[in-house]
C-alpha cells in the first residue's frame, strides 16, 4: 500500500541521516521492474541534498556492463575537480604499472578508498546507484573495497536492485550482504493500495469500486496503473465534458500497452525474449518448452517468468491482459514471427500437445519449403478435433492448408472428403462442387473406403445413382476383406438406409440383395437385450416400421438410440433415422420432445442443414396430428434454412408437407404454386418423393380433378408395394383413393379400399384406423353410419388425430341431420367447428358455415338473451357448460375435468337455472371457453 511506502521512506531516512553513527551504512532497495525503486532512490537523494549531504549518483546499465569502471566513472564525475584526477583509466594504468594489471587494480582500489576518506572528512556523503545489478565487475570491486575500509560515520550508500543479476553476481552479493545492510523490498500495491491511489488520482470515492478490476489487470504495478489512468484521462479529454457512468472502469489502451512494453524492455534482451516466447505460446506453464522455443537456458527462463509474474504481466503463467500479449506479439519483427510459430508448432507436436494448439501456430505463417511431413498430419489431427468441438471454420482452415501442402494424391482426396463431411451439415450448397469432384475417385478406388461412405450419401442426395453405385461397389470390396469392422457396420447401415429410402434403382439393386440379414427384425427382442451397432439399430427400426407398420420393439430400439447417441457429423443420419421411426410409428409426444430438443441444439450450433432436416420432421409430426398451421410454419422454416436446391432429390419431403397442409387448410392457390416448382425426376424414385406424390393427389382431389388424383394415389400404392414399404405407417394411399372413388360414385371400390386399410391397421387405436372407419361409414347406409362414425371419433380422440377427428365429427353431424336428429347434429357441428378452427382447417370451418361471432355473450345478445346471466356462471360451471355444449356426455366431462359425474350434473343444473333453459340441447352453440382438446 502507499502508506507502507511512506513508512519505508521514513525508515531509510532514520537509517542514513539520523541517529547514532556506527560506521558506513548501506541500504538496498529491491523489487521487480517498475515497482518504484528508482522513484524511492530519487526521493532519498533529494532528501540528502536538502540536508546538506553530498550525493554521488550513478546509474548502471546492461549496455555498459562490459566496460570496466563504467559506474565508478560516474561517481568520480560528481566529485570535486581535484579528486577527479585520480579517476581510473583502464588500460593506461595497467600499461604504466611495471607490476602488471593486478597491481594497477590495487592502486585504483586504494585511490578510491583515499578519495572516500577525503570526501567524508568535510561533510556527509551519500553514494546512490540505480540498477546496481547491471554494474560492471571492476566498479563493484572498488565499491566493496572502499565501503569496507572507510570507517567514517559520514558515508552512506543506497542502491536499487532488480530481480535479475548479471555476470557480476558474486561481487554484487559480497557488496550487498554486509552485516548492517538495510533491505527494503518494494512489493506491488494490494487492492486496498490501488483503491487509495485511485481515490487520490481521480478525486472520487466512486473510483474505489473499480480497484479490484484495476488490480486484476496490473497486479498492483505502479507503471501499469499509471498507463491505465493515462488512457482514462486521454479518453475523457477526447469525450464529453461530463463523463458517462462507468468511465472509471479500467480499459487497456495504447498508453497501458506501452507501459507493459516498458516493463518487459527494462529487464534486458534475454528477459524480453522470454516475454515474446510466452506471448507466442499463450502461457508460461511449460518452462522446458519455452526454453527450447526461444533457445534460452531454463534457469534464465524461470527467472524471467518469475519477474513477469512479480511485475504484474503474468498471473498463474498466463497474461493478466490480452492487450499485453497482443502488444508483445506486435513487437516481434515479421522475420522473427514466422520461424518462432513454426518452431512452436513442431515442439508442441513432438510433445503430443492439443492438435488445435499446434494448428494455431501453423495457420499463423506459411509452411517452410520443402514442407515437413509432420505438418500435414498435424493439421489433419487439428481438423478432427475442431470438428468435434464444432469449430468448423478452424477445421476448414486446417484442411485447406493441409491440402495446399500435401503431395500425395490419395491424401489430398481424403482431405477433400473430410471437408465435405465437415461442412455438409452447415452449408451443403458450398460443398456440392467439391462433392461432385470426388465422385470419380470414389468409384475408381482412389478415395479410401471410410471416406467414401459420406461421399456416397451425398451423391445419393444429389440423385447421382450410377456414381453412388460404383462407389458402393468399391466400399463393399473393402468391407468384405475386413468383416466385423466399423467399415463393415457402416456399409450394412447404408444398405438398410437404402432399403427404406432409395429402393427403386436398378443400379443399387445388386448392393441391396447382398445380405439377407440386413432387413427388418424377424424375431422379437427382449427388453433387456443389448442392441447391435446404434447405426444398424436405427435404420433397422425405421425399415421395420415402414415395411410392417408400428412395431413396439422397433420403437423401443429407436428410443434407446436417441437416449444413448449424441448428435454429431458421424451420427446425424443415425439420430435422424431413429427419430423418423418414432414419427412414422405415431409416437407424437415422444417424437415432438426429441425433435424440439434437436432443433434447439442444431440452431445453437448453426448447423442449417441439420436444422432443416429436423424442422421437416417437426412439420411431419404436426401434419400427422392435424396441426396444420404448425406444419406450414416448420416446413417453411426448413426451406428457409436450406433452399430447395440444397435438398436435392429429398426436396419432396418439405414440399409434400407444405402442399398437404395448404390443401387441408383450403389454401389451394398456395398449394398449386408449390406444385408448379420444378423438382428433379429422381425425386419420384425415393420415399421422400412418395410424400410429394401423395400431397399432389390430395390437392387434385380437393380441386375436383378426381381422375388425376386417383392416378397419383395408385402410383403411390404401386411404388410402396414394389419397394416393400406398403404399411399404414408410411402413407395411407388407400384412404385417399377411397375418398376419390366416393366422389366418383364408386362406393364398392371405396369400401373395399377402406376395409383393406382397416385390416392393415389392426385393432389398436390409431389415426389410420379412425380415418378408415370414417371413410367406411360413408359407404354404408345412413342408419349404419352413426355407429361407425362414433367409433371413428373415439379412436381418433384416443390417438390424437385432430384434423381427422374434425372431419369425422362433421360427417357425424351430417349423419344425424340426415336422420332428423337436428339437436345432436348441432352439437356435433359445434365440436367439429372447434377442432377445425384449432387445427387451422379453414375450408372445413367454412363448409360447416360457422358464424363470425364466437363468444357466448355476443350470441346471447343476438338471440335477445340476458347477457348478464352468463356472467353469473362460475369458472367451474363455465367449463362444464362449454363441454356439454360441444356434445360431450356427463361421463366424458367428468373424466376430462377430473370430477365426479354427480358434480357435473349439479353444475349443469345450476347453469340451466342461471341462463333460464331446461335441457342440454338449448345451450348456446357458441358457448366457448377455449376448452383444450387433449387425448
Give your account of this protein's structure:
Residues 866-931 form the HTH luxR-type domain. Keywords: ATP-binding, Nucleotide-binding. This is LuxR family transcriptional regulator. The structure is a single chain. Helices cover 66% and strands 4% of the residues. The chain has a 5-stranded parallel sheet, with helices on both faces. It has a two-stranded antiparallel ribbon with strand order 6-7. A hairpin with a 2-residue loop joins strand 6 and strand 7. Helix 23 (449-462) packs antiparallel against helix 24, helix 29 (572-584) runs parallel beside helix 31 and helix 40 (767-778) packs parallel to helix 42 (802-818).
Topology (SSEs and partners):
Blueprint: H1 2-17, E1 25-31, H2 37-50, E2 54-59, H3 70-77, H4 81-84, H5 92-96, H6 101-122, E3 125-130, H7 137-149, E4 155-161, H8 169-176, E5 182-186, H9 191-202, H10 211-218, H11 222-238, H12 254-265, H13 269-281, H14 287-294, H15 298-310, E6 314-315, E7 318-319, H16 322-331, H17 334-350, H18 355-362, H19 373-388, H20 392-405, H21 409-423, H22 428-444, H23 449-462, H24 465-481, H25 486-501, H26 509-512, H27 534-548, H28 552-564, H29 572-584, H30 588-605, H31 608-625, H32 628-641, H33 644-647, H34 652-665, H35 668-675, H36 687-702, H37 706-723, H38 733-743, H39 747-761, H40 767-778, H41 782-799, H42 802-818, H43 822-839, H44 842-847, H45 856-862, H46 867-871, H47 875-885, H48 890-897, H49 901-915
Helix pairs in contact: 1-2, 3-7, 6-7, 7-8, 9-10, 10-11, 11-12, 12-16, 13-14, 13-15, 13-16, 14-17, 17-18, 18-19, 19-20, 20-21, 21-22, 21-23, 22-23, 22-24, 23-24, 23-25, 25-27, 27-28, 27-29, 28-29, 29-30, 29-31, 30-31, 31-32, 31-34, 32-34, 34-35, 34-36, 36-37, 36-38, 37-38, 38-39, 38-40, 39-40, ...
Amino acid at each position: 500500500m502507499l502508506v507502507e511506502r511512506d513508512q519505508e521512506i521514513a525508515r531509510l531516512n532514520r537509517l542514513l541521516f539520523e541517529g547514532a553513527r556506527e560506521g558506513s551504512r548501506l541500504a538496498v532497495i529491491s523489487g521487480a521492474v517498475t515497482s518504484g525503486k528508482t522513484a524511492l532512490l530519487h526521493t532519498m537523494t533529494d532528501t540528502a541534498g536538502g540536508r546538506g549531504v553530498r550525493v554521488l549518483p550513478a546509474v548502471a546499465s546492461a549496455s555498459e556492463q562490459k566496460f570496466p569502471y563504467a559506474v565508478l566513472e560516474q561517481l568520480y564525475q560528481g566529485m570535486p575537480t581535484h579528486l577527479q584526477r585520480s579517476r581510473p583509466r583502464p588500460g593506461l594504468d595497467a600499461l604504466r604499472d611495471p607490476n602488471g594489471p593486478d597491481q594497477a587494480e590495487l592502486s585504483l582500489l586504494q585511490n578510491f578508498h583515499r578519495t572516500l576518506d577525503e570526501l567524508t572528512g568535510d561533510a556527509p556523503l551519500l553514494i546512490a546507484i540505480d540498477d546496481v545489478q547491471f554494474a560492471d565487475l571492476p566498479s563493484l570491486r572498488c565499491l566493496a573495497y572502499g565501503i569496507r575500509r572507510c570507517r567514517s560515520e559520514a558515508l552512506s550508500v543506497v542502491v536499487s536492485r532488480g530481480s535479475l543479476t548479471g555476470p557480476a553476481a558474486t561481487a554484487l552479493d559480497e557488496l550487498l550482504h554486509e552485516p548492517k545492510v538495510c533491505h527494503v523490498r518494494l512489493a506491488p500495491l494490494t487492492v486496498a493500495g490501488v483503491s487509495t491511489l485511485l481515490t487520490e488520482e481521480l478525486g472520487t470515492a466512486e473510483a474505489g469500486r473499480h480497484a479490484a478490476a484495476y488490480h486484476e489487470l496490473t497486479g498492483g504495478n505502479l507503471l501499469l496503473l499509471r498507463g491505465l489512468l493515462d488512457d482514462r484521462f486521454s479518453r475523457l479529454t477526447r469525450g464529453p465534458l461530463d463523463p458517462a457512468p462507468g468511465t472509471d472502469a479500467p480499459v487497456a489502451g495504447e498508453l497501458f500497452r506501452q507501459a507493459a512494453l516498458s516493463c518487459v524492455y527494462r529487464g534486458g534482451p534475454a528477459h524480453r525474449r522470454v516475454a515474446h516466447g510466452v506471448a507466442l505460446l499463450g502461457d508460461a506453464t511449460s518452462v522446458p518448452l519455452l526454453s527450447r522455443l526461444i533457445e534460452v537456458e531454463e534457469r534464465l527462463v524461470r527467472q524471467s517468468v518469475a519477474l513477469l509474474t512479480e511485475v504484474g504481466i503474468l498471473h498463474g503463467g498466463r497474461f493478466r491482459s490480452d492487450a499485453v500479449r497482443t502488444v508483445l506479439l506486435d513487437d516481434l519483427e515479421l522475420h522473427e514471427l514466422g520461424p518462432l510459430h513454426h518452431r512452436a508448432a513442431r515442439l508442441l507436436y513432438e510433445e503430443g500437445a492439443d492438435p488445435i494448439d499446434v494448428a494455431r501456430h501453423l495457420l499463423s505463417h506459411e509452411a517452410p519449403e520443402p514442407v515437413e511431413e509432420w505438418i500435414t498430419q498435424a493439421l489433419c489431427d487439428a481438423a478432427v478435433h475442431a470438428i468435434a468441438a464444432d469449430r468448423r471454420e478452424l477445421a476448414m482452415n486446417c484442411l485447406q492448408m493441409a491440402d495446399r501442402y500435401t503431395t500425395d494424391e490419395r491424401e489430398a482426396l481424403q482431405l477433400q472428403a473430410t471437408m465435405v463431411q465437415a461442412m455438409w451439415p452447415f452449408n451443403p450448397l458450398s460443398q456440392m462442387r467439391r462433392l461432385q469432384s470426388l465422385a470419380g475417385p470414389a468409384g475408381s478406388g482412389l478415395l479410401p473406403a471410410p471416406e467414401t461412405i459420406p461421399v456416397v450419401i451425398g451423391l445419393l442426395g444429389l440423385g447421382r445413382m450410377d456414381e453412388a453405385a460404383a462407389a458402393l461397389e468399391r466400399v463393399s470390396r473393402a468391407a468384405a476383406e475386413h468383416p466385423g469392422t466399423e467399415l463393415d457396420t457402416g456399409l450394412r447401415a447404408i444398405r438398410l438406409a437404402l432399403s427404406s429410402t432409395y429402393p427403386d434403382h436398378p443400379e443399387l439393386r445388386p448392393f441391396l440383395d447382398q445380405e439377407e440379414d440386413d432387413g427388418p427384425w424377424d424375431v422379437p427382442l427382449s427388453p433387456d437385450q443389448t442392441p447391435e451397432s446404434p447405426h444398424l439399430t436405427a435404420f433397422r427400426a425405421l425399415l421395420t416400421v415402414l415395411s410392417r407398420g408400428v412395431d413396439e420393439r422397433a420403437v423401443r430400439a429407436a428410443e434407446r438410440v436417441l437416449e444413448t447417441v449424441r448428435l454429431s457429423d458421424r451420427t446425424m443420419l443415425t439420430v435422424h433415422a431413429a427419430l423418423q421411426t418414432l414419427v412414422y410409428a405415431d409416437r407424437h409426444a415422444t417424437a415432438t420432445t426429441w425433435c424440439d430438443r434437436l432443433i434447439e441444439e442444431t440452431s445453437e450450433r448453426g448447423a442449417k442443414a441439420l436444422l432443416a432436416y429436423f424442422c421437416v420432421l417437426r412439420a411431419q409430426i404436426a401434419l400427422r396430428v392435424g396441426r396444420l398451421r404448425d406444419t406450414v410454419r416448420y416446413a417453411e422454416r426448413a426451406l428457409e434454412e436450406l433452399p430447395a436446391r440444397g435438398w436435392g432429390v429429398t426436396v419432396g419431403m418439405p414440399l409434400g408437407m407444405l402442399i398437404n397442409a395448404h390443401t387441408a387448410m383450403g389454401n389451394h392457390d398456395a398449394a398449386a404454386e408449390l406444385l408448379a416448382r420444378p423438382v428433379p425426376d429422381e425425386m419420384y424414385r425415393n420415399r421422400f418423393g412418395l410424400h410429394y406424390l401423395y400431397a399432389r393427389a390430395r390437392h387434385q382431389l380437393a380441386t375436383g380433378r378426381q381422375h388425376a388424383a386417383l392416378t397419383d394415389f395408385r402410383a403411390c400404392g404401386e411404388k410402396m408395394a414394389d419397394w416393400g414399404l406398403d404399411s399404414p405407417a408410411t402413407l395411407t394411399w388407400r384412404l385417399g383413393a377411397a375418398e376419390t372413388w366416393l366422389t366418383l360414385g364408386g362406393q364398392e371400390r371405396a369400401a373395399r379400399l377402406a376395409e383393406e386399410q382397416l385390416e392393415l391397421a389392426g385393432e389398436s387405436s390409431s389415426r389410420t384406423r379412425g380415418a378408415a372407419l370414417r371413410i367406411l361409414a360413408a359407404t354404408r347406409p345412413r342408419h349404419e353410419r352413426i355407429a361407425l362414425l362414433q367409433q371413428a371419433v373415439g379412436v381418433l380422440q384416443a390417438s390424437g388425430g385432430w384434423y381427422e377427428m374434425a372431419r369425422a365429427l362433421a360427417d357425424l353431424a351430417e349423419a344425424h341431420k340426415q336422420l332428423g336428429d337436428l339437436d345432436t347434429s348441432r352439437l356435433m357441428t359445434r365440436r367439429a367447428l372447434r377442432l377445425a378452427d384449432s387445427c387451422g382447417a379453414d375450408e372445413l370451418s367454412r363448409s360447416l358455415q360457422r358464424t363470425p361471432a364466437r363468444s357466448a355473450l355476443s350470441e346471447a345478445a343476438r338471440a335477445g338473451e340476458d347477457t348478464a346471466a352468463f356472467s353469473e356462471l362460475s369458472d367451474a360451471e363455465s367449463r362444464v357448460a362449454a363441454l356439454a355444449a360441444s356434445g360431450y356426455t356427463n361421463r366424458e366431462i367428468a373424466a376430462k375435468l377430473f370430477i365426479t359425474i354427480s358434480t357435473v350434473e349439479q353444475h349443469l343444473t345450476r347453469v340451466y337455472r342461471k341462463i333460464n333453459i331446461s335441457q342440454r340441447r338449448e345451450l348456446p352453440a357458441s358457448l366457448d371457453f377455449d376448452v383444450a382438446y387433449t387425448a
